[in-house]
Design brief:
By secondary structure, the chain is of the alpha/beta class. The protein contains twelve helices and 13 strands. The structure holds adenosine monophosphate (AMP).
Length: 324
């Protein structure tokens, strides 16, 4: 079932220990859309400036992504982000963020974008996330991403936005910061409690989050619901070139997989398979700069890595009788 994503469409300048790019296609909505497009039709909503090229739109069009709601703002400049990574790629410094056309962005979803069953609110100002959510009251599944900036300067708005979605996808450090809880599972369960009680919920009002995904970079990701826990390591890679967009690509795999199973209940079983696809998609993203690797990715390559991931995360045999 179609997915609508609202978020940044960007030019990124990135430096890692393995090279640099001065102006490459990026943005959370773009990384998400390219990954999710393997599963379902994706509709991208977001602004770009006069400087945004047709070639960049074609990268999405080639994956069947619907870009009709990408709004070209006359006289505006496309969102620009510059970042640099430390030697082991675990630390990242933002050197420049130019909001450009994002400054006055008022998301207005077309009839078509509003008719999607699944919505992904990529990392944007949380009040805007809530506004978009309100434009799609009937969405079957809604997921949200955010970042430390909004926890710092707009926490109340973020908590409100979170209460209106089904799934929250954050880095583990962001989850801890958001809840002021040092333990990841406790932090996730706190977020899961931000749901309006069923007895006080008007019909048609959002249910509140039932799934929290904590991304842990090269260590993988954990999935926490009210009564279950699941974790996967990252796909074992020997070459990592640029982690930019890995989180959004992960979200695209997760949400895309869920969107492609509209008749399945949101069970632990479905969520675990979605986590595996998210993990594999993200593994391709980091192998080259920006969208370069995912642009030429094939379904067959994804399937091969799913098999490997299954193999490296299983063990068997009875527990040894212990001495004590
Ligand atoms: P990730 O590596 O998954 O955290 O996502 C990186 C992408 O997010 C880059 O392509 C950036 O263009 C985009 N990005 C960085 N900062 C922001 C921001 N403040 N708001 C929206 N998008 C951003």
């Amino acid at each position: 079932m179609p997915i609508t994503v609202v978020g940044s469409i960007a030019y990124d300048a990135v430096k890692t220990p393995f090279g640099e790019r001065e102006r490459m296609l990026g943005g959370a909505a773009v990384h998400f859309a390219l990954a999710a497009s393997f599963f379902e039709e994706v509709r991208v909503v977001g602004p770009v400036g006069d400087d945004f090229g047709e070639a960049e739109l074609d990268v999405m069009r080639r994956r069947g992504v619907d870009v009709t709601d990408v709004e070209r703002v006359r006289g505006g400049k496309t969102f620009f982000w510059r970042g640099e990574y430390g030697w082991d790629l675990n630390s990242r410094e933002t050197l420049d963020t130019q909001l450009g056309v994002f400054e006055g962005f008022q998301p207005k979803l077309s009839e078509r974008s509003r008719s999607s069953d699944v919505l992904f609110l990529a990392n944007i100002q949380p009040d805007l996330q809530s506004e978009v959510r309100a434009q799609m009251p009937d969405a079957r599944f809604v997921a949200l991403d955010s970042m430390n900036l909004w926890i710092d300067i707009a926490r109340d708005s973020l908590v409100k936005a979170i209460a209106s979605v089904d799934c929250v996808i954050l880095n583990d450090a962001e989850l801890r910061q958001l809840t002021a809880k040092p333990n990841l599972v406790t932090a996730a369960r706190e977020v899961l409690s931000w749901s309006p009680p069923a007895s006080q919920r008007a019909s048609g009002e959002p249910r509140g989050p039932s799934v929290v995904v904590a991304k842990q970079g090269e260590y993988g990701a954990a999935l926490i619901t009210r009564d279950s826990f699941f974790a996967l390591p990252a796909y074992p890679l020997e070459t990592v070139i640029d982690p930019t967009g890995a989180g959004d690509t992960f979200a695209g795999g997760l949400v895309g997989y869920i969107a492609a199973h509209p008749r399945e209940e949101l069970s632990d079983e479905l969520l675990r398979r979605a986590m595996a696809h998210a993990t594999v998609l993200a593994s391709f993203n980091v192998e080259e700069f920006g969208t370069e690797r995912v642009e030429r990715l094939t379904g067959k390559e994804i399937a091969e890595r799913i098999d490997v991931l299954l193999e490296v995360t299983q063990f068997s045999g009875p527990a040894l009788p212990l001495r004590y």
